[in-house]
Amino acid sequence: MNKSLQLLLLLGLFASCNNPSNPDTPAGKPEDNAPPTINYSVVRTLPHDTSSFTEGFLFHDGALYESTGTEPNMPESRKSMFGVVDPKTGKIDKKAELDRNKYFGEGITFLKDKVYQLTWQTKVGFIYDAKTFKPLGQFPIPVKEGWGMTTDGTDLIMSDGTSNISYVDPATFRLKKVVGVTDNNGPVSNINELELINGFIYANQWQTNYILKIDPASGKVVGRLDLDGLFSTERNKYATSDTMNGIAYDSTTGKVYITGKLWPDIYEIKFSF
């Protein structure tokens, strides 16, 4: 074999070793395990109070509830409270309010005959009667901070601004389990407002316009709604509109409503669960 032919064969062998064939991955395109995008459409728009710094959003007995937060350096028009949203005005019919100088109100949930309300950094939660909204007591928040909350009918399910979703016993307020939320890049932080829909947890990710669909068994993000377009619309309408926060699912009608802090609108959206 002459030296020129031998050199060509060696070069060919070297090239094949450094470019392994993978029929599942096109050349020059690395495999992408990112959560798939969930397409959605807007069904209708309802008004939202631009003084409502949204922390919790949910349906209960056909009524839309919202909880809000504030602190002393925020405008006086903002409250740490929760109540029923009037679909005609977006205003909240207040059911309970916290002292804004002591507590920053966060997520709420209804479980059996009670309403549970989180506060941000004070490690104290509040309990109310679900019919009269009379205060029933307080409870210790067993996670880093109080952010979002939902329920599976048995446990209180909380977020604390990290990548953790925590299951808490409503009788003892002890942690039963913690599920770490992950995607193709690893842990997903800033998990905020929560809603349980058809066995999956949907979560706002703070400082983004994403709603994440999370498998509660594994913590894996299995889908993602990108609502950047709606955020842009809200910011154009009202310049101080803040981050997305608020997912409310009516299990009776199958409707999903979303909003954000200080947004002028609530959106009913439709997507495949």
Q: Explain this structure to me?
A:
The protein has helices at residues 3-18, 228-237, and strands at 40-47, 54-60, 63-68, 81-85, 92-97, 105-111, 114-119, 124-129, 135-140, 149-151, 156-159, 164-168, 175-180, 182-183, 186-187, 191-197, 200-205, 210-214, 221-226, 244-250, 255-260, 265-271. The protein has two helices and 22 strands. Strands 1-22-21-20 form a four-stranded antiparallel β-sheet, with no helix packed on it. It has one domain (35-271): Methylamine Dehydrogenase, Chain H (7 Propeller), CATH 2.130.10. The relative contact order is 0.16. The radius of gyration is 23 Å and the shape is globular. The termini are far apart. It is mainly β.
Q: What would you call the quaternary organization?
A: single chain
Give the class from helix and strand content and strand pairing. mainly beta
Describe the strand arrangement of the main beta sheet, using strand numbers: 1-22-21-20
Main sheet, how many strands, which sense, barrel?
Answer: 4 strands, antiparallel
The pLDDT mean sits at: 91
Q: What order do the helices and strands follow?
A: HEEEEEEEEEEEEEEEEEEEHEEE
Strand segment count: 22
Task: Work out the strand percent.
Answer: over 45%
Per CATH, the class reads Mainly Beta
CATH homologous superfamily label: YVTN repeat-like/Quinoprotein amine dehydrogenase
CATH fold call: Methylamine Dehydrogenase, Chain H
State the share of residues found in helices, binned by percent: under 10%
Q: What is the CA–CA distance across the termini?
A: 65 Å
